[in-house]
Amino acid sequence: FFFKGFILFYSFKDFIYLFIDTEREAETQAEGEAGCMIMPWAEGRSSPESFSALSWKADPEAHTPPPLQEPSGPSPPSQAQQKESVQAVRRSLPVFPFREELLAAIADHQVLIIEGETGSGKTTQIPQYLFEEGYTKKGMKIACTQPRRVAAMSVAARVAREMGVKLGNEVGYSIRFEDCTSERTVLRYMTDGMLLREFLSEPDLASYSVVMVDEAHERTLHTDILFGLIKDVARFRPELKVLVASATLDTARFSTFFDDAPVFRIPGRRFPVDIFYTKAPEADYLEACVVSVLQIHVTQPPGDILVFLTGQEEIEAACEMLQDRCRRLGSKIRELLVLPIYANLPSDMQARIFQPTPPGARKVVVATNIAETSLTIEGIIYVLDPGFCKQKSYNPRTGMESLTVTPCSKASANQRAGRAGRVAAGKCFRLYTAWAYQHELEETTVPEIQRTSLGNVVLLLKSLGIHDLMHFDFLDPPPYETLLLALEQLYALGALNHLGELTTSGRKMAELPVDPMLSKMILASEKYSCSEEILTVAAMLSVNNSIFYRPKDKVVHADNARVNFFLPGGDHLVLLNVYTQWAESGYSSQWCYENFVQFRSMRRARDVREQLEGLLERVEVGLSSCQGDYIRVRKAITAGYFYHTARLTRSGYRTVKQQQTVFIHPNSSLFEEQPRWLLYHELVLTTKEFMRQVRGPSFAQESEDVWGGRILARFNLLRLAEKQENINLR
Ligand code: CDP
Ligand code: MG
């Protein structure tokens, strides 16, 4: 039978029955169609070392930490009580018994690798210990880096609460386009990218006494670059303390990299986790997830559920499906709180996942990878893992960066499973077969540096005076072609000269925390006197294609609203138009609602715009407006993005640089028009290779003007750059 999509047609009695009688259903499924929605769980072996009974220490009861938040009872606890309970929670964390030992090790060694199970208190406690120990005396600061914005924000908020200070005073965070710190801030949580930018203003990090590179196992591009830079700084600043904190992965490599620095292990507190696999692969993992959550909810004892999905859209869809089905089941099932968590979720919504589950109810948190190691949610007993994540990949030959849903690694799968065993013995349901786990998953995730474009980082390193990139101390070096392409592109943009040295314009470009092409566009707006408009375009491009809102029940209205913003000349001008009209409405949320525009994205664009405007002075660009002369705006865009040119051929569009076949995204304002020349903001690979945010059509003519006809010469730079690199980089 087809269970898919028909779950609600069964009476509740059948519903329970269907779930419990898995044996029978498994058979039914075998002879039925793929995508049967009863999960016939096969109990698998616990994964080799991670879930051995050895890691199960002492009595579970004794280790269960007290609730994190004060229960909101009728009489709120007094301040003193609250303080006491905060301290009790702090003392209950696995890192606490090692406080003195850890501080002694830090005092004894300049570099220390700290390994500990997720949730043991590395991120929130260690910086506080250092603070208490006096590492912030004489105005010195402690930096703690996080790969993710959300983690930096939420952890800083947590620590501020524990210390009883206002966020932004002693404890603050700083992420791109958002700085919540002040003169007084001594504990700085920041994204790894922000610490990297600190090197520009303070190459020896002189105002920091301790740098803690946290979540090092994530191996983000920025973290990897930080390793090289910090190792270098540590050599000539013997008093600087370097801590590299990581979940229980890869620590030996970090130690080797930092000249055999000692590893400090915080013994884990992990209860056994039973792992279940599906007997057959799942065709539709989203549907399978939803059904499995309900299955767990109905058949399993109390305990919250954590589901790993790959991104916002998927998470929203799953949450909607879950809520919908719960609503229809009504009082037949106990209350199920469905809470999403992903990077763009507003912070008040994010905070909800940390609130304790009301008695009698069950919470299901539907999360991205963010809950894998950077965030710990109390009370999770069940983990549901479809085995996918969204991963960036980059092909230097085509210059194509894509974000695709790919199977996660074994290391990831084990981290995910581990989230179920934090407070008591747990269960992890994997929506794939045991065979797939053994044979199809990679051991570990490839470090980001090997699968991303490097323009930004190369520009930054060059402006830090690091000339010899081939010999930079990389933990894992990036592919040679990627590095070369980055150099070539920076040369084409005029950021590097023919000797591979940073130019004045390159120095300015590095000042702006955006991609080199975007920086170039902003700098060019000075020449064409349209910086006001270009700032808007840049800000709108930075908010990631989430401007328009398209509810399923109002598709026609939404599409009409979108088309109303169209202007001849392409999507950049459409974005400009949306923003300008919104600004004219007094930045109104009502206006957004009426025009099917996402208010949240617009608010973020406004923030980004303000931040960029504040940086203009540093790069010597004055504020000016083109007064409706959009040709000037288009020229500035061309100056930054000429590299991204495509030409219409008989078989569709081809990129001029790499001769890739590409298509205009159906959402583009130029989708119908199909102009002969196009300039695109980015390529995305979904069902096809799409160009997003395109502009035309008089591109060739304008570029002539901007580049004085040298454009094609500049496209053939690879050999030149390589020659340069031979001279300068080896
Ligand atoms: O860094 P590590 O994974 O070792 O642990 P942590 O992030 O310092 O978390 C320690 C404790 O603080 C955990 O019990 C978390 O649940 C709690 N925490 C929280 O309640 N809210 C946050 N925003 C961060 C941590
Ligand atoms: Mg942490």
Give an overview in words:
This protein is an alpha/beta fold and 730 residues long. The protein is 41% helix and 17% strand. The chain has 28 helices and 22 strands. The strands form 4 sheets. An 8-stranded mixed beta sheet has the order 5-4-6-3-7-8-2-9, with helices on both faces. A hairpin with a 4-residue loop joins strand 15 (388-395) and strand 16. Helix 11 (285-299) packs across helix 12, helix 16 crosses helix 17 and helix 19 packs antiparallel against helix 25. It is globular and about 65 Å long. The termini are far apart. The model is unreliable at 1-40, 42-74, 697-701 and 703-730 (pLDDT under 50). The structure holds cytidine-5'-diphosphate and magnesium ion (MG). Cytidine-5'-diphosphate is lined by residues 68, 93, 116, 118-125, 154-155, 158, 354, 376, 378. Residues 57-86 are annotated as: Disordered. Residues 63-77 have a biased composition (Pro residues).
